[in-house]
């Protein structure tokens, strides 16, 4: 089946899409990773935040959030990167990053892109041109490291 990649400004997202995004983020980050934290952080509907989604039929398989550089101090910030558990192993992670970087460049040309990576994923993000920017730190008891591209 074909994957339908959709990137929408928050003002263009329908309530069903938003519900699917929040449901999948909770499924992965709160339930699967056993991490009690405030996922709905007030940034989903702010500024020029955009949401990249990969749909197959009516199922959300992959997602990431792009926060605009004006609200983030100069960098586009990629966050909430995830693949649904039953969609892993299909290469969607790399395609998700490629799509995310493509849209970041389209919306904010030549602006550096930053992300807070789980430390064990440094090589994964490194394959997409990200380099370590800062020191490792704990976020919700999970080691993270800042990474920047551009």
Automatic annotation (TrEMBL):
<keyword id="KW-0012">Acyltransferase</keyword>
<dbReference type="InterPro" id="IPR016181">
    <property type="entry name" value="Acyl_CoA_acyltransferase"/>
</dbReference>
<dbReference type="GO" id="GO:0016746">
    <property type="term" value="F:acyltransferase activity"/>
</dbReference>
<protein>
    <submittedName>
        <fullName>GNAT family N-acetyltransferase</fullName>
        <ecNumber>2.3.1.-</ecNumber>
    </submittedName>
</protein>
<dbReference type="Pfam" id="PF13673">
    <property type="entry name" value="Acetyltransf_10"/>
</dbReference>
<dbReference type="InterPro" id="IPR000182">
    <property type="entry name" value="GNAT_dom"/>
</dbReference>
<feature type="domain" description="N-acetyltransferase">
    <location>
        <begin position="8"/>
        <end position="150"/>
    </location>
</feature>
<keyword id="KW-0808">Transferase</keyword>
